[in-house]
Amino acid sequence: MCRFSKFLALACCLISTGVSADQVPATGRLLVATDEVRGLHFAETVILLLHYDESGTLGLVVNRPIAAAPIEALPQLEDLADYRGPLYWGGPVRLTTLRALLHTDTPPDDAVQIFDAVHLVTLDETLLEVASNATNLRFFMGYAGWAPGQLERELAFDSWHILPATAELVFADDSSDIWRRLVPPREYRAAAEMTDSGASLLTSFQEMTRLTASANTPSTPGRW
Predict the structure, then answer these.
(1) How far is it, in rounded angstroms, from Cα 129 to Cα 78?
(2) CA atoms of 74 and 150, how far apart (whole Å)
(3) Where are the domains of the chain?
(4) pTM of the full predicted structure?
(5) Which of 8, 33, 95, 150 could form a Cys-Cys staple with 146, CB 3.0–4.6 A?
(6) Separation between Cα atoms, residue 120 and residue 201, nearest integer Å
(7) CB-neighbour burial class of residue 159 (10 A; exposed 0-12, middle 13-18, buried 19+)
(8) β-strands 160-164, 56-61: how paired?
(9) pLDDT computed for residue 75 by the predictor
(10) Residue 220: pLDDT band with limits 50, 70, 90
């Protein structure tokens, strides 16, 4: 069976089990980890999907800030010195790459719309002139990726909720609160019991990403 046929079969399986169109993965939607997701990388994560088709899936974790200033983690990108906002861990794949999301009604010509007024953009001087803080600009080291059919299998095991994305969530002032706001109360209570109300998980992750940021020298953003 060809790759597209497998992708189509898995998608049809999701729909046939009573999943509405809004609950099917698509660019611009959020994956919200259920309490079935364990481990330091993806437990309690919220992931914005940037790309989804038969070739695979790519997204950015939007609720994992790194405990380091962007200019400290990325000293070779001097233009970041004026950026006033956190750097985010986008996922475990290719941690030496950098991606940027911009919330604007007037995006650069080469921007890729993800949803509404949120765009994936490349890093240049003009970008930082119009967006110098976390209100409308976010930087992400690495990304989360799934091979063809992998995300569909995880969905079949109830690993993720799928929700529409909003700029309020993606650019939230306190990203540590996003997951709790989106999951059902039962799942939040279960996760809190396993992680000391979530504090130990967040502390461990921040230490890991601090070490990761200091050990890597990311390049400028790619399209994907």
Answers:
(1) 13
(2) 32
(3) 3-215
(4) 0.78
(5) 150
(6) 29
(7) middle
(8) unpaired
(9) 73
(10) very low
Query: Of 52, 66, 178, whose CA–CA distance to 115 is shortest?
Result: 52
Check pLDDT > 90 for residue 156: yes
Which residue shows structure tokens 């230490």? 207
Residue 199 main-chain phi, psi, to 5 deg: -65, -45
Of 51-60, 129-138, 171-180, 190-199, least confident by mean pLDDT is 190-199
DSSP string for residues in the chain: --HHHHHHHHHHHHHHTT--GGGS--TTEEEEE-TT--STTTTT-EEEEEEEETTEEEEEESS-EESS-HHHH-TT-GGGGG-BS-EEE--SEEEEEEEEEEE-SS--TT-EEEETTEEEE---HHHHHH--BTTTEEEEEEEEEE-TTHHHHHHHTT-EEEEE--HHHHT-S-GGGHHHHHS-HHHHHHHHHHTTTTHHHHHHHHHHHHHHHHH----PPP--
pLDDT grade for 9, boundaries at 50, 70 and 90 = very low
Nearest Cα to Cα of residue 88 among 76, 96, 100, 77: 100
Q: How far apart are CA 37 and CA 45, in angstroms?
A: 9
Domain 3-215 has CATH 3.90.1150.10: no
Q: Answer for the pair 206, 68: CB distance below 8 angstroms, yes or no.
A: no
The answer to whether 52 and 199 are in contact (CB under 8 A) is no
**Would you place residue 43 in the very low, low, confident or very high pLDDT band (cuts 50, 70, 90)?**
very high
